[in-house]
Amino acid sequence: MSRQIYKADRVKRSVLTRLKRLGEIVVSDIENGKFPELRIPARTTRNIIYDEDLRQYVLGSRKIERTTKNIRHLRPFAQLLWIATFAKQLLKTGKSSTLRDTYYVAIGEGIDFDDQNESDEMIMQLECLLDHPREDFHIFPEERASIYGDLIIEYTVPGFRGKRVDLSAHPDGFAIGPALTTAEFVKCNAELVFVIEKGAVFSRFVEEGADKKYKAILIHTAGQSPRNCRKLIRRLHDELNLPIYVFTDADPYGVHIASVLIHGSALSAHIKGINVPDAVWAGVWPSDIRRYRLPSMKLTDRDLKRIKELEVDPRYQIDPWKRELKEFWKIKRKAELEAFSRYGLDFIVKEFLPERLAELQKR
Amino acid sequence: MSRQIYKADRVKRSVLTRLKRLGEIVVSDIENGKFPELRIPARTTRNIIYDEDLRQYVLGSRKIERTTKNIRHLRPFAQLLWIATFAKQLLKTGKSSTLRDTYYVAIGEGIDFDDQNESDEMIMQLECLLDHPREDFHIFPEERASIYGDLIIEYTVPGFRGKRVDLSAHPDGFAIGPALTTAEFVKCNAELVFVIEKGAVFSRFVEEGADKKYKAILIHTAGQSPRNCRKLIRRLHDELNLPIYVFTDADPYGVHIASVLIHGSALSAHIKGINVPDAVWAGVWPSDIRRYRLPSMKLTDRDLKRIKELEVDPRYQIDPWKRELKEFWKIKRKAELEAFSRYGLDFIVKEFLPERLAELQKR
To answer: Which pairs with CB-CB distance under 8 Å and at least 24 residues apart come from B32-38?
Structure first.
């Protein structure tokens, strides 16, 4: 067993310290004969501001007060404290949970949540209070992305602590769950990361040797990237200094997958460090449809509605986002990553990839 | 490099032989001055019969004739031959593809498909003609299941051929893509397989050591099991003689996930060997909702409609299926696998699992 102090251990200690402080506030109020109160950062659109340094949206200074003086606050106050207790249990036992799982445990313990939305809300309030994403107190997404590449990791989870695995050993990819998310990076020969929305294209990159040709780690997000995968990508960038290139379909959903990865999601503006501001959206751009004469489909009414929504979103006011949304209106069409296969299965890796990387690196 | 003959190689040889025979029929017809003709098993509900030996629905003896004498048949005839050519290319180059990818390659080569449905249909006709599932000619699903357990595999795909990996090395699971699907089983200390619909429950099983306690391989299907995962489960049963237990939500979708795994899907009645007749649906049964007093939700109108559809499906005319569908009408409620967490995170593995396995093994 390694005696090294893992990053995951430092995170755990930080969360436990903040949980303890939270408890002390409540206890000391009671001991001083005061009604316990908490001030929780307000997670409203009016309290979201763009932080130039962090290059992401963050919460402003507005707080909501939760005071046990007010009988209407008592229920959410108690719910929040229960979530905090559960978070502590997860950390102490080294177990993990999900939003849904947490809701069921709460029901079993007689905590009065109307539905899962209510317990989800409390988990997000705890994230605000602790300034840690819920993954740091072991509440993980249900969805799984996967990873493949020249990187050796060391686990920190119980039962696997100190064990290592070489992520180039399995070409279909290693699922990214609690164990991989909290692992240490031990040795990396890769020089960049390709993040890929589609399983078929991930397999194509493996089969055409894109990982070797570009010394690339490949990540398959399987649609919208789960939060823990976004955090992992951020760590690959911050800790290993790897440039990140993101490949999605050229439709409003693909565009938004890239954007959320880079700018963060509106829903997690209260959480720092799970977006990757330096990541680059590398394609398929809507403008690639004309440029590469890709097989394409008509944008549906639903697509067009979604594009309109994105156009008023602050994250889409600069290029390439603004330019590429405009392109949608010009061509009224969308295309998938697999569309490059019209030029043969190897075209995307042998022709498109070097062309696009050269172009992006020139900028 | 291993000089062993892999099963994947035998499959490849079988498909190539049948592809060649298909070509020879066409060529010899032409050389004999005849219009080439093919007789393709009819994939209609009227031609589906239950095979008692195989314990799955299979196609009956009705065939459709495709003859180049008929000008309306010329187009699908040519499309089918193109798909056969593409299948041969995939096998010869060791590359893989998906239904969608294949459609784009077809477009690029000027093959006249109206849309992907049409190329999908031709791929299924080729499956019928060759009596091989499309995975055997390297057309894989886009979706990824994952696997974890005490099993060492050896790859047969180019670039990894002869290399081995221990599937107990990564507790979040190994993604099941083309490489894992075609791998050889080298060494297995596991004694059974748990197939699990939900990622949260897969992680729970790992964290509570269900794999060690039961010497179990764990498979996470992430919803409906992709076809190549079903095939892999079938192989774990046939080649390693492992009993298979399936865990799904107690809702009409969960029930059907278990049923398709066991009985096969209507869409793939023309394909043998991708269902697992000996697999056992181990829960959550709708009757478990009352028995374990699980937190549950009201069945929606959509759920009720789906249950009615299942009730007229021939696969649901015997127990436990029939009995459990009836239970839905009695309680009008559904529950998720995670609902056991009401009794604590470890309940599902420590209490429910041994109880259910004892019960099933007694029968």
So the answer is: B35/B67, B35/B68, B35/B69, B36/B67, B36/B68, B36/B77, B37/B65, B37/B66, B37/B67, B37/B68, B37/B69, B38/B65, B38/B66, B38/B67, B38/B77, B38/B80, B38/B129
Active site residue B103: no
Q: Is the per-residue pLDDT at A102 higher than 80?
A: yes
How high is the mean pLDDT of chain B?
94
Q: What is the largest CA-CA distance in chain A?
A: 75
Which pTM does this prediction carry?
0.94
Query: For testing the chain B interface, which of A89, A100, A104, A176 should be mutated: the one with the most B CBs within 10 Å?
Result: A104
A144–chain B Cβ distance below 8 A for any pair: yes
Domains of chain A: 7-137 (1.10.10.10), 189-362 (3.40.1360.10)
**pLDDT below 50 — which residues of chain B?**
1-2
CB < 8 Å to B343, chain A: 108
| Three-state secondary-structure class, residue B184 | strand
Residue bearing tokens 């357990």: B149
Chain B (271-300) residues lying within 8 Å, Cβ to Cβ, of chain A: 295
ipTM value, please give it.
0.93
Chain B's closest residue to A342, CA to CA, is: B108
pLDDT in tens, A119-169: 999 999 999 999 999 999 999 999 999 999 999 999 999 999 999 999 999
pLDDT at residue B1, rounded to an integer: 44
Cβ contacts of B179 on chain A, cutoff 8 Å:
170-172, 206
Chain A neighbours among B 186-205 (CB < 8 Å)? 198-200, 202-204
Which of B104, B148, B155, B214 is flagged as catalytic? B104
pLDDT (tens digit per residue) in A31-68: 999 999 999 998 887 888 888 888 888 888 999 999 99
